[in-house]
Specification:
By secondary structure, this protein is α+β, with helices and mostly antiparallel strands. It has 16 helices and 20 strands. The radius of gyration is 22 Å and the shape is globular.
Length: 516
């Protein structure tokens, strides 16, 4: 890809929310909630705790135009709350919700530490921020291990092989003007078939609360989706999620919340997965996808593609005949090319890589073992299986699978491939080091991160779309719901850069107090 900098901002924001698996090597029965609390609090030097404002969150709001009375996960949340009341911690201590100096959010999502990247407006920034999250969590695991006197292990994967899945959610802040039904019909087949380059690979098959013997499949998450469209995220998961929390001006924007993807370690897979999705969403501003893209049975196709040992990935179409996942992705790329301005260097690079990746997958996936997680992992497993004369059902192979995802650059198998030069990179090391300490330059996360760096003691609340602080007994709020490149963002960034005191921001932005 073109690594010339700076890269022009995209017209949308994108970000990733990743839940990490957690375990203690010396004790498989240990309380992982307790471990997750201690692990997250090890990030204290990088941010400020207990600022996150939950009062403006509403996961029941549905993109189909109504508010759901209840979610299937409400019962799980109530059970978690009941269990947490037995712990010797306050709600704030259990959540341990940190806003970091790079604009990210890091907290305990009950049984998993979760890292949410700051909003990014270029893919290069997003990949660097995602890798920064890995580095932060790796260091937190080391700190927690020293403090707890045992070995805390973190895994960037999506399954425990026993029928429990945890997510890597993608967020795309897009114009509200795109009709919701156009998004649903346009994204369905794309997301179902996107796993051929976005999958992280997994050994065995699963269903809720149950792991089963099976061969290698290309997606970690495909076993866990049973609905076409819906608002839930933890039970009866849908291919298209309808949660409607834009965290921006709701009259102008919506957040397309993708829950079907895997957690990727490969920078290239993250870059391509998010980039192609953003391109399709941009093209949907102009037109509907052709009806010939519609799948006869998206749920069946989603699972069968993942489990197809032949790598042909054939799927039936809704209106006539059949095609393959590679042909359909190629058709999507051609359709996107008719609508999106590919003079933008990063969009052009993603589009060309999309076409190249699909072409190589059609010839045989092994040529992509330096770029795609599932191909790299399958190659590792195949080599190990042959050396040890194991069947694909041998549980030893699941241990190798798990070690691919270990957040430890000295021991994790992905990192061994990376350090051996067997994995292509998108980020430079200096990009990642900067992303650990600094927010992205061209998004509202810049204002959030700089406020943490400069005025943490004055902050009282933070959300994705605003920052509130107290000055001389009064509360002031900086609204970021319309802070986008070319709109208000540049002015906010200039003000926070110049400000020496919170009062400087109040004066320059002409803020009025909202209360005591």
């Amino acid at each position: 890809m073109d690594k010339q900098r700076p890269i022009p901002a995209w017209p949308i924001y994108f970000g990733l929310e990743t839940e990490f698996g957690i375990a203690v090597r010396e004790n498989a029965e240990i309380d992982v909630v307790e471990e997750s609390i201690h692990l997250v609090r090890a990030a204290a030097q990088l941010g400020s705790p207990n600022l996150w404002d939950y009062t403006r969150e509403d996961p029941h709001r549905d993109a189909r135009g109504f508010r759901a009375k209840e979610l299937r996960q409400d019962g799980d949340e109530a059970n978690f709350f009941s269990q947490d009341r037995q712990r010797p911690y306050s709600f704030e201590e259990i959540k341990s919700d940190f806003v970091l100096r790079n604009g990210a959010r890091f907290y305990n999502d009950h049984t998993h530490p979760e890292y949410s990247t700051p909003e990014c407006s270029t893919l290069l920034e997003l990949v660097a921020q995602d890798k920064a999250g890995e580095r932060i969590l790796e260091e937190c695991a080391r700190a927690a291990s020293r403090k707890r006197n045992h070995t805390v292990c973190l895994y960037k994967n999506n399954s425990d092989f026993a029928g429990h899945s945890y997510g890597c959610h993608e967020n795309y802040l897009i114009p509200r003007m795109i009709p919701w039904d156009r998004i649903v019909e346009g994204m369905m087949a794309f997301l179902v078939t996107r796993q051929i380059f976005g999958g992280a690979g997994k050994l065995g098959w699963e269903k809720e609360d149950q792991g089963m013997v099976g061969g290698f499949q290309i997606s970690q998450r495909a076993d866990f989706f049973t609905e076409l469209v819906g608002i839930d995220t933890m039970n009866r998961r849908p291919l298209i999620n309808t949660r409607d929390e834009p965290h921006a001006n709701p009259k102008l924007y919506r957040r397309f919340h993708v829950i079907v993807g895997d957690s990727n370690l490969s920078e290239y897979a993250t870059w391509l997965k998010v980039g192609t999705t953003a391109l399709v969403l941009e093209a949907l501003q102009y037109d509907r996808v052709p009806r010939r893209f519609f799948l006869a049975d998206p749920l069946y196709a989603h699972r069968s593609i993942s489990r197809d040992q032949t790598n042909r990935w054939e799927v039936d179409l809704a209106h006539s005949g059949a095609t393959t996942a590679t042909e359909l992705q190629n058709d999507y790329a051609d359709w996107v090319g008719r609508y999106v301005d590919l003079d933008h260097p990063e969009k052009r690079a993603v589009w060309k890589s999309w076409k190249e990746t699909v072409e190589l997958l059609q010839k045989g996936p092994n040529a992509l073992r330096d770029r795609l997680d599932w191909v790299a992992k399958r190659s590792l497993l195949e080599t190990f299986r042959e050396e040890q004369n194991l069947s694909w059902n041998d549980p030893w192979l699941q241990s190798v699978d798990l070690e691919y995802h270990l957040m430890d650059r000295d021991r994790g198998l992905y990192y061994a491939l990376e350090s051996g030069g067997e994995i292509s990179r998108i980020s430079r090391e200096e990009d990642i080091y900067r992303a650990i300490q600094q927010p992205p330059n061209a998004s509202r996360a810049y204002v959030r991160g700089k406020c943490i760096q400069k005025f943490a003691r004055d902050l009282v609340n933070v959300q994705w779309d605003y920052i509130a602080f107290r000055w001389k007994g009064q509360t002031y709020r900086v609204e970021l719901s319309s802070a986008f490149p070319g709109v208000d963002l540049e002015r906010y960034c200039e003000v926070i850069d110049r400000a020496q005191l919170v009062s400087d921001m109040i004066e320059e932005l002409k803020l009025e107090p909202i209360g005591g």
